[in-house]
Predict the structure of cholesterol 7-desaturase.
Amino acid sequence: MQINIPNVFNKHLTSLKAICLSGANLGIGGSVADDCVICPFHQWKFRGTDGLCINIPYSTSVPKGSKVKKWISQEVDGFIFIWYHAEQTELPWDLRVPMGEIDDAFVYHGHNEFYINCHIQEIPENGADIAHFNAIHKKNFINGSWVQKKRLFGLGSHHWKARWSPLVGKLKYLAEVNLNHYFKLFGKFDCFRMEVSGKQIGPSIVCLEVNSYTFGKIKVVQYITPIEPLLQKVVHEFYGPRWIAPLMKIFIYGESLMFERDISIWNHKVFHRNPILAKEDASIKKFRLWFSQFYSSNSKLYSEATNIVFFGILYWKFLRTQIVSRTSVALRLTAKWIWWLDF
């Protein structure tokens, strides 16, 4: 999906499809003038408010119905979000209320960025997978990003308690996650306590507020963007008071290492639609029921999106572990906000 985003019209945001009716890319060599986007190929002029072509410089008339698609978009915290729905019917939810505003006293401290080979549902499901926290995030982060590494530093271990719950009614697209963390130093002293409260907003956005005696108050925002089937781009943005900049570098480093432990699992994991779960995994069942609202009958399956045709036994064996096992369980994604641009 290519999108042209001219921030015009008295500072009102508009987002148009970046492909002209001639096939040229409006974002490469195009220009903005008089609240319109002008194609670099033939100079056709498209009105930014609705995408309608209003002028063809070498013609006395404009063909009826000549317009490029206008996307529903919203600006929140310096990011532009584009609404995508497979049915093209359902109206989007407002992101400004659940995301909240960045505290005026907060500044941007940095971000990390990852590309992950997994089903899109795997990543947000992490918050509801209570058992995984102490399974792969217990070891001291100084030991690195790979959970099976031999312990080199015996300073202590991380301990977690978590709770995940969905909202209902008009806010059914939201879920809440709460984490309590402490570090047991030398197996004796409890320190570095943190309380984390967060909102899962649809299938791709998570906003976390971290309260810690060590780091103070921090805000972390996670964005997931599908790049292609079974390839997701994940970005974490970090905000906090200016004075904690040195400590924030440690926090970002530790968070990145912990997240890479999850990635080491996801990159080699097969997504099961109906996994066998213990009774203590009830929150995963709740999550999957909640997440199912973002699928529809017209969302493409993996096989449809990639147009894969299998020829012969050898080709089947080659792709078996990398593609086919996931093809049979790939679900249908419909509604989401896609984060697009920061400025």
